Amino acid sequence: MLGTKVYYYPKVNDANMVAALPDMGNVAGLCMNTLVNKLNAKLFAEIYAYWPPYVTYKDGLTYYKQSTYRFYHCNESNLLIFTGDFNPSDPRRLYEVCYEVVNMAQRLNVKRLYSVGAALRASVSAEPSIFCAANKKHLLDYVKAYSNIHILEGEGHITGFNGLILGICYERGIDALCLLGEIDNPEIIQPRTAKSILIALIKILGLKEFSMEELDEEERRKRFMEEQLRYMSSVVDRERHNIYY
């Protein structure tokens, strides 16, 4: 069950919407947070979800944070943004969130919806490749004009909100496509991939370029930690060698 609170309806004309929830490597989460902050997006509606059904605790003191989803409006860019804290794994709740987003998109006459996310690959190139899937063929023809975007070939699934929303949009007659950036480890935050997706979105949506220094700094921290882990692993391997051989 969801509860929606609308503060105001923005005046938009044939607006695009970017809608995504946190996923593998938090690629979508990084993308959406960066868009909201860099575009000075204004909150105009929220969805309150009646989950999670628990509290967390630390040293006996409990903490509770109700999951929320937020709609933003960027007046200068004629852009709507939807994001939130939690990508539901329960199918019923996932469909509920998708329907709320598509209802809002229809209410505001959105012309095209974009979602973003991660594509798991065995290895990642120096600059992560961006793949595209769409709910209508003419959208695939549209993105072919961008040399750094590849059509997602073969067969497979795009799970969670970032994939399902394309199907719900198709049912409602809304053009929708998904940009997926390649990652090789879903358990580690992936700022480099998020930056690659944002660069593609800026071109497609005709947005003004903005600094992504925060993502660059996050990538530097990530690489430092990876180097430390590799070093510790090599030390452990040497110690094992000395003990047993």
Write a concise keyword list for the protein shown above.
245 residues; alpha/beta; Rossmann fold; 2 domains; nine-stranded mixed sheet; 11 strands; globular
Task: Explain this structure.
The protein is of the alpha/beta class. It folds into two domains: 2-210, 3-Layer(aba) Sandwich (Rossmann fold); 215-245. The chain is 38% helix and 25% strand. The chain contains six helices and eleven strands. Helix 1 (27-38) packs across helix 5 (191-205).
CATH topology of the largest domain: Rossmann fold
Number of helices: 6
The major sheet is characterized as: 9 strands, mixed
Mean pLDDT: 90
Order of helices and strands: EEHEEEEEHEEHEHEHH
Q: What is the CATH-assigned architecture of the largest domain?
A: 3-Layer(aba) Sandwich
Total beta strands: 11
Which residues sit in consecutive blocks of at least 5 with pLDDT less than 50?
none
User: Ends: how far apart?
Assistant: 61 Å
Count structural domains.
2
Topology:
Layout: E1 2-6, E2 16-19, H1 27-38, E3 42-49, E4 56-58, E5 61-63, E6 68-74, E7 79-84, H2 91-107, E8 112-120, E9 130-134, H3 137-143, E10 149-151, H4 161-171, E11 175-183, H5 191-205, H6 213-244
Parallel strand pairs: 2-7, 2-8, 8-11, 9-10
Antiparallel strand pairs: 1-3, 3-6, 4-5, 6-7, 9-11
Describe, in short, the structure shown.
With 245 residues, this protein is of the alpha/beta class.
